[in-house]
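#data-curation
PF: Archiving a pair of folding outputs for the training set. Convention for this channel: one message per protein, sequence first, structure tokens after, nothing in between. First:
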Amino acid sequence: MEKIVEQGLLYDFYGELLTKHQQEIYESVVYDNLSLGEIAEAEGVSRQAVHDIVKRCDRILQGYEEKLRLIARFMSIKEKISQISKLSAQYEDSDSKDWSFYGTQIKELSERILQEL
């Protein structure tokens, strides 16, 4: 996964667990795409301080994901829902309207989603 996308996902799931100052700095890097120098100037701190905060936030957010696995679970459920959507579309497009084949697959995917929740 591209680093900026991964950072965005981590922040979306766990960003509220950071301090307000960490949130502001991290959002400036990830969402506003500001340079470390621009952030340092705006915050009145050194470029190195901004770099350290961003790295610390990366470690903190990654640590939350390693323990809680919310993003991994989200991505797994998202993939299963996508499969259900494709199966439903195939069923609608099929001439035979053989619900047993598609229904069984949809039911299995639905059960796996429920087990993950």
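PF: Second:
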Amino acid sequence: MSAHEVVVVGAGPAGSTAARRLAAAGVRVLVLDTARFPRPKVCGGALSPRVLGYAPAGIERQFRTGIRRAVFSYCAAQPFEVVADRPLGYTVRREEFDFWLLERAAAAGAAIRDGARVQAVERDGERILLRVSGERVRARLVIGADGANSIVAEGLCPHDHPPPLLALQAEMASPWPHGETARVDVGRYPRGYAWAFPVGDRVNIGVMLGRAHGRRLEEALARFLAGAACLPGGHPGGAKAAPVAGFRDGAGGCAAPGVLLVGDAARLADPFLGEGIYYAMWSGSLAADAVLAGGDGEAIAGRYGTAVAGTIWPELRMAGRIAFCFHCMPRWWFRLLSRLPRGILRYAGVLAGEESYRGLVRRLLVRLEGGTGRWVGERLGIARKEERSDSKRCK
């Protein structure tokens, strides 16, 4: 039986970030993953600029394309565009990007065992026992970074709901004549949307739907491809589906004594866009901070849970409210945003980490008049500035 201070289960962005930070500080860390790296990953592969704050030096060399223009459509019609003076996001090939992050963790001193399947996780006194490909591994602390269907979460910190979203994604080896442009289509994708953007010499195409509509993924992707003349012809081969672990308010904790869940394993993905890499790396960094601050497993779990609840959850909670409002009446929102393209450009501040979802919504409410602004504000849990001022004067 082998023993380690910290075992990280899952070598994606969340696990590699936590392992790199811990190993660099002198903690003995073992990283386990079922797959052999580099490995393919079902993902859009789009990074928001705010990822830079949690990434090791040299990440820019992993970028394939910087997206500066976005074209939005409703059921493949009524397109409008926004053009930014800085990248709205960057695209990467996940098999390259994840392998690079894992190599950075190894360079910092983390021990890496890919191709090692974790079969069970259970408590063994004050330690955690993992059954890994026929052998037993004991750890003082386990970080569950093993995705939306986390075996660590299932064994030690279970969720009370399945991942709420599903995505179908493919890459096409086809020319993309639209430069640094992403295409986004809404209106016929319950609780989701369809996308297409360049990743170097390839095109990443996909669709996201609410879990209840998962059987319509293939149909939705086919309709998106058929309805947009700007997209490459033909149906992409090798399209694969995967759960998207969107956050749901009140969905339970992300830690227990000796166990920290990060990234998709903790349901820390944007329920509006489905973005997960940023929150994976952010939570991985918070987990490392909690461990390095010291204490026993209970103290570390409490510290991490408090950090996530005070920083990540408020953002994801607001993203969930925005998603609810948008999907209640997508046509209305599409028309509104098409008339306020600068509002979408302000979203670049959120993607860059310079603005919060709450701050962005407050700016939007200032632009909405009368009953419309009140209706939106009530559903998002934010009163417009002038209404708060009136309330104070009444008191």
